[in-house]
Each structure stands twice: as structure tokens, then as C-alpha cells.
Amino acid sequence: MDFSIYLSPINIPDYNIHGSNYEKRIGDLLRIHTSESGFPDLEDIHIAIFGVNESRLSVNNKGTEKAADAVRNYFYQLYPINSKIKVADLGNIKCGNDIEDTYFAVKTIAENLMKQKIIPVIIGGSQDITYANYLAYENMGQIINITSIDSSFDLGNAEENFNSQSYLSKIILHQPNFLFNFTNIGYQTYFVNQEAIQLMRSLYFDVYRLGHIRSNMEDVEPLVRNADLVSFDISSIRQSEAPGNANASPNGFDGEEACKIARYAGLSDKLTSFGIYEINPEFDQNGHTAHLAAQIIWYFIDGVYQRKGDFPHKQKKDYLKYIVGMEDNEHEIVFYKSKRSGRWWMQVPLNNPMQGKYERHFMVPCSFKDYETANNNEIPDRWWQVYQKLM
After folding, report:
1. Which residue, 254, 244, 301, is CA-closest to 118?
2. At residue 16, does pLDDT exceed 90?
3. CB 288 within 8 A of CB 244
4. Would you list the DSSP string of 225-290?
């Protein structure tokens, strides 16, 4: 497929990317789409970055279409994880005549990259681009999980027009629906009405308050390990550390926590696409937000190159198996611990007719704390929610 029909090239002189012969920067190692060299060869590429110059449906944050170039200015100058990274920068998606044209371009590019086993990293643009990223899975025959790092749920109002703060409703209502689970990490209660929280729970979605997550950062790893798609709203980070957003709040994650979450996402063998949104250079101060976004992407890439390849699909010999029976004798929970990474999963029983359709979801990432919970004769919340969906 000719991706270049959707993408504008990068103008390299705009960036200070080159180190010395002995100090290669990321900008020296990327395969970059430029006017001079043309579209890069994607042979053996693992990760492909592209920007989306789109903010027409942004709520109170116009200017996010300029984010990708601002982030590149810092990302290209960072030192690489190692000199063998295989990452391409495809340029920026051209803003379509209609918003649907932009969505189609994002969907088409992301879908084709994933079919080539290349992870797309999307630099938005407004967060409604997440919907276009979701559509990329439609023709791939996958039922997927989405994890959003956000201070709210972006459900919006079903009676209002679609925008960057209602993309989740669009995903939930889309037919055919291929969303198995949605997880929100870091919502702030004063930004979310109680009806929305009840709705999320009635759908057996996972939602976690900012305060809980910040006090239990180790809980984030199994949450993002279960995701196919991660959507990172920069407004989930506190204003003092990411001022480049018109909807920034005094509270939120700090920069170190944001980078840790991104690295956890990269480590997930299951995750196949990552997007960061709502960065607005017009509100930024000394490039502070763009610089942090560049580091978030750096940590995500670092995670990808540290993957263990230990998701327990079928081969169980590399795992320790633990069976915990509940006192009611109605349930038993089977846990698997990877000998390679020390990570945990719990198995949810499936009826045979459903085995093929939900094969990717009955092994639920968890932590040692979930194993301890089961040993205390309590069913872990994550196990119970998946069990309810599969009944």
C-alpha cells in the first residue's frame, strides 16, 4: 500500500537531530519520510510513528494539530535505548476535507501497519482520533481491549455531536462492536458524574481513580498489559508538568508516573497500538509538554524492546500453575506465574462454543495481590468482571 498519499513528509532542517559520530541520537537512527529520501522502507521495522494534524472536533483545545512537529523537536534529540532500534517516522497525516477523511486515513494506515506486525504510535491531534484507531481493528477479526489514561471517561452526551470528549460513546455504539473491555486509569471524581461511573460498572468496565492509582502504581502494569490499544490524554498529567493543554488541571499524574505507565504499555506483548493526544503547543511553556510527550514515547519504545514474549496462550510449561478453590465450592481460580518474567495471569473458564471468539481474553493479567486475595477466599474483581462478560 502507498501510505505516502495520506502523509506529508518531514522537513529535517526544522530539527536539531544530529549528534557526533560517537553520540548517535534517535533522529540519526530513525527511517524518516522526507521530500529528499521519500517514504521509508518498512522492512524489519518494529514501530512506526505518525502525526495527525487534526483538531476540528477538539473541545476547548484548538491547536493540537501542531503537536506532532513540536514533539519531534525533542524526541529526535534524545539518546536511543540502543543503536539497533527499528523505528520509522512516517510524517503527518494531511487534514482531510472532512473529518471522516482524516479518520479513514488513520484507520487505513494503522490497520496496514498492524497487519505487518508494526506498532503504530500516533501523535495527535485531539483524542477523538482514538475512535479512528479503534476502527483499524474492525477488519482484523479481533475483539479488543482499550485502556485510556484520562482524567474523565469521555462519554459525552449521546444527544450531542461527536467530539474529543465523547469518543468513547461512539466506540461503544459502533456496529459491529468489537470492544471487549475498556479500562480508565486516573479519572478524577470531580470531572465525572456518578451516573457515568455506574454506567461503566454496569458494563463491567474497569475504572480507577487517580488517588488509588497513585497510591498503587504497581497495579497499573496488569491493567495496561491487558490492552490492545492505549490512548493517552496529556490532560491526565497535572498542569505544572504539562501546561500545553487548554483543559489542563492542577491535579493529575506527574511526569515520572506518566513515563512509567507508558513503559508498562510498551512491555505488554498484547498491545499493538499507542496514541498520545491533546498536546497543544499554543499553551505550552518553553516546550515543556512537548518535551514530556517525547519522553513518554521514549519510555514506550523502551518497553517494547524489553518485551518478554511470555503471554500464556497455549504453552504452559514455562509457567508455575496455582489452583485456588473458593469455600463455596462453586468456583476455583487457576493462576499462572511466568518463570521468565515473574508476571501473573488468572484463567477465566470458558464454554467450548465461545473458546475461539474470546481466546485472547480468558487469560486475565493480574498481580500477586490478586493471588493473595483469592487465598483469602475473595474473588478478585478483575476475574469476576471477565467471568460476568463470558457467562
Report:
1. 301
2. no
3. yes
4. HT-SEEEEEGGGB-TTT----TT--S-SB-HHHHHHHHHHHHH-SS--EEEEE---GGG-STTHHH
Q: CA-CA distance, 273 to 142, in Å (whole number)? A: 13
Helix, coil or strand: residue 377: coil
pLDDT tens for 345-379 read 999 987 655 556 677 788 899 999 999 999 999 99
The residues pairing with 38 across neighbouring beta strands, listed in sequence order, are 34
Where along the chain do its domains lie?
Answer: 3-304, 319-390
SS (H, E, C) 293-323: HHHHHHHHHHHHCCCCCCCCCCCCCCEEEEE
pLDDT in tens, 189-236: 999 999 999 999 999 999 999 999 999 998 999 999 999 999 999 999
Cα 333–chain centre separation: 28
Residue 40: burial class (beta carbons within 10 Å; 0-12, 13-18, 19+) = buried
Q: Are 319 and 343 in contact (CB under 8 A)?
A: no
CA separation for the pair 184, 370 (Å, rounded): 19
In whole angstroms, give the CA distance from residue 322 to residue 375: 11
Contacts of 230 (CB under 8 A, 6+ apart): 146, 147, 148, 149, 224, 265, 271, 273, 274, 275
pLDDT score of 102 more than 60? yes
Q: Give the three cell numbers for residue 342.
A: 515473574
What's the gap between Cα 150 and its chain centre?
11
312: pLDDT strictly greater than 80 = no
Closest to 306 measured CA to CA, from 261, 259, 341, 355 = 341
Q: What is the mean pLDDT of the chain?
A: 91
Which superfamily does CATH assign the domain made up of 3-304 to? Ureohydrolase domain (3.40.800.10)
Q: What pLDDT is recorded for position 271?
A: 97
Average pLDDT over residues 22-35: 88
Helix ranges (DSSP H) in the chain:
26-29, 67-75, 99-115, 129-135, 167-173, 194-202, 210-215, 220-225, 255-267, 288-304, 368-375, 381-390
Find the angle CA(192)-CA(270)-CA(88) to the nearest 5 degrees: 95
Q: Is the pLDDT of residue 172 over 60?
A: yes
Q: Which of 244, 79, 230 has its CA nearest to residue 150?
A: 230
DSSP state of 98: S
